[in-house]
Amino acid sequence: MRPLIDVWRSATSRLILIYGALFVVWSVVLLGAIQWESSRYLTHVLDEIVSQRMQYLGQMDEAHLPQAVDAAGTLDPHGIMSAGLFDTQGRPLAGNIASLPQGLVADGRMHLLPKGVLRMDRLRSDISARAMGQRLHGGELLVLAKDTSTIDGLGAIIRRTLLWGLSLTVIPGLLGGLLLSRGPARRIRAIQLATEPIQRGDLTRRLPVSRRGDELDVLAGIVNTMLGEIERLMGEVKGVCDNIAHDLRTPLTRLRARLYRAQQQLDGRPEAELMEACVADIDAVLTRFRALLRVSELEDRHRSACFSEVDLERVLQQVHDFYAPLAEDRGLRFVLELAPLVPLRGDAHLLFEAFANLVGNAIKFTPAGGRVLLRAQMERNGPRVDVVDGGPGIPAGERDSVTRRFYRGDNSRSTPGSGLGLSIVSAIVRLHGYALEIGDGDGGGACISMHCLAEPAVEAA
Amino acid sequence: MPRILVIEDDEVTAREIVTELAAHGMVADWIATGRAGLEHALAGGYDLITLDRMLPGMSGIDVITALRERRVETPVLMISALSEVDERVRGLRAGGDDYLTKPFAPDEMAARVEVLLRRHQPQAENRLRVADLELDLVRHVAWRDGQPLSLLPTEYRLLEFLMRNSGQVLSRTMIFEHVWGFHFDPGTNVIDVHIGRLRRKIDVAGLPALIHTVRGSGYRLAPAD
Q1: By CA distance, what is A322's nearest residue in B?
Q2: ipTM score
Q3: Closest Cα partner for A145 from A120, A175, A182?
């Protein structure tokens, strides 16, 4: 059985993951744009304030200027605004800027100073600043700077918003998505379970269809229609086959009786031999028809109410006793290996027929000196029976075909047989709710096994 | 001369049965319906009944059930176009002694009738004897020409079946059904191998062969001609 569908791999989960990723990207882009726009605006406003103040201070006379510069620094309670007046040597004359900021160009325009300005009330500067420097008429340098903490603060607020927003939408979204995808996953699982008997050949089964009429139901409906049509066609083909086999049996049986009578009357004459060959040919045809009808009969049969507890060990022992002389005559070793088995529900006659067929085949395909092994053991789900031969084996490519009616492998064309034996075995094994497995034996030959399905199909009913 | 009642609605099949039974030295009366057939069977005087499973009105199963309820134990060979395993089981459970599927080879039908007739003959002795071959049914021992034979259980059962029906041609299918108790086509020549083994023990060199192969039919155990 294939593994059941994984919730994480369902189409819904995938869609939700893709949608979630797109949502995150879009939110980041959107809030990024907002941040960029607003910090641009804020920068513009701050620059405007600084240049206005510069203009105001620049026009002041030299006597009042140091006082005004000092005041400009103290007027700012948040310590955002810095102001400084430096002499021509770059020594501070007034204000709260401790030293001439590095990288400042005294051109009366705003510049971004990534290292900020070193203020007297702070030990170090770690906040970048926007600053403007202007030479006054007396040669002093007036510097006004505003650190960018406001702009950075805005950025931080927007980033926090983004983080909260995303975690509040993405996490519940993903969880909700997973919950949502469980519904379809459960239905797919139901469909998967329903298809298992169909894959095993029970074409009467259909996929479950809910009343919702959604895409899954539409799909299941289509598959069900197809199954119905396949079942009908199979039935027709099988019906035609069965009818031919059934209808031809009567005239063939009569023909055989007449030929046989003629053969008896001709006893001893040379024509009798010809008659005998004719009878043998008709017998071969009749055997084939019988086998064909037998397969149909077994396939049509449903698990029967007359199933009873079967002692599988006893059945296998009987098969061994029945075939041991034949194996010995062919110069084969026929080994029976039995582990204690629990009884299974079934039909002892049909099981004997199945294993007799397998063992008969195994003996047929094993050359003299070889070994045929009939082995039974207990597995977790129930008994497993292997028939291992010492023949050429069944090539991997033919393994699915060998249980088909009339199929004869390349290795078996030269051996007599109808090509129906394995079909009969397969039908019987399936009837019992077991699986037939064709593999390699230890010695290069084929190993044909009857074993329980992973989940026992043998219901208590 | 055994008297057989043939209950069969199909005229062609009925004629086939009657002719074949006559060829085997039996007298056969043909009745076409279940009801009339039951009356005849109840009237008695028949050694065996061949009974079609599907009859108009009263089915073969009804007929045999009615017979067995009235303690009529005449052996019945059910003949049916229904070959299914369940059908066979149903027919035998209802009281049929053997089951033959249509279409059948007439000689096989006759052989089955003879086997049934033999089986229902009172067995006076505990020993079966064919020429110098002897079988002790109580002690499960056999002798050929006074010499004890060592037989495996299957070989013993096979020999017993052949000896009980000595002179009778027995098909491989019949042997498989009676000795092993299974009803399908074993396909290979397994039966031949089992017969071969028995033959090697019984038909030892220097003694006339008792087990004969009948071409196209099966085997027959009989004194050498």
Answers
A1: B190
A2: 0.85
A3: A120
